[in-house]
Amino acid sequence: MAQKLYFEDVKVGDAIPAVKKAPVSKDQIWRYAGASGDFNPLHMDDEWGTAAGMGGRIAHGMLLMGFVGQAVTNYIPKKNLKKFSVRFGGMTKLNDVITISGTIKNKRTENGENIITGEVIAADQNGDMKVSGSFEAALPNK
Amino acid sequence: MADAKQVGRQYDVAPWEVERCKIKELALAIGDPNPIYTDKKAAKAEGYKDTPAPPTYATVPGNWQSNTGQFMADLGINYMMIVHGGEEYEYHKEIYPGDVLSGKTTVASVTEKQSKSGSKMDIVIIETVLNNQNNEKVLTSRTTIIERK
To answer: Most buried residue among A70, A136, B64, B134 by CB atoms closer than 10 A?
Structure first.
């Protein structure tokens, strides 16, 4: 886990260490429903997901954003994170194996703050993009 | 279709008390092993006052204690036709167990767009600002809802 990251140690183009998640399981989707309070039948019920044309239940988009947040705060201490946004792409299904990767895109000092920005992507075992996102963090000097 | 006349309409976010176990439950459901979410000692060692809320925590009060039903009805959005297009967070201050969050949700914009295939959709942006019990702004969220027409 990221405990400390200094502005001087980050370079534009640096890769964020990739995080590979365990296959998405029914158990995880149930737990996420309970934790988040999102019990939409699209996530809870395979028949419903099939009727909706998804070929079974799909994982919560916000679970995927949670995966991406894990990867971001695995690299940058959570307290330094200022902005975090995602766009949802493809649907995530049971047993999909999601890997999150990212790159530092920009570094600047602005109003006395050391800002870094980066882009992140979550993709499945076939390389299909599920989520793309970006983040901004303010880092301390050494 | 989403009623563009609703832009600017505001809704109260009812007070929501942040619970330590709900923070832990969210981190465990995501499978995020970062101990700052589950272990107060580990969190303190990294400079937090207590176990902080994970980056996507705001979805929890957003679902459990939602004003979503109200603004969706006022917007006239058809639930069967929507997808969650995106989510954006700005973090102003750490959220900790015991905090009581409240605030306002605003219908920020309704924009009609056409996809590459020619089908039309409405892009609705819902903005929520959350304050803590000391009236400090802690978080701003922007949710993009896409309604296919």
So the answer is: A70
Give the nearest chain B residue to A77 (CA atoms): B46
Q: Do A78 and B55 touch (CB under 8 A)?
A: yes
Inter-residue long-range contacts of B114-123, CB under 8 Å, 24+ positions, other chains counted: B119/B148, B119/B149, B120/B149, B121/B146, B121/B147, B121/B148, B121/B149, B122/B1, B122/B2, B122/B77, B122/B146, B122/B147, B122/B149, B123/B85
Find chain A residues with C-beta within 8 A of B83's C-beta: 88
Whether B38 contacts B20, CB under 8 Å: no
Whole-angstrom distance, CA of residue B98 vs CA of residue A30:
26
Q: Which of residues 9-48 of B touch A (CB under 8 A)?
A: 22, 25-26, 28-36, 46-48
Q: Could you tell me the pLDDT band of residue B65, with boundaries at 50, 70 and 90?
A: confident
Tell me what pLDDT residue A102 has: 98
Closest CA to A45 of A36, A35, A58: A58
| Closest CB to B64 among A22, A32, A37 | A37
Say whether the ipTM exceeds 0.85.
yes
| pLDDT on residue B21 | 97
**pLDDT score of A124:** 98
Two tokens at B72?
Answer: 């969706």
Q: Residue A3 above 80 pLDDT?
A: no
Burial annotation A4-22 (CB, 10 A radius, 16+ → b, else e): ebebeebeeebebeebebe
Number of CB atoms found within 10 A of residue B85's CB: 18
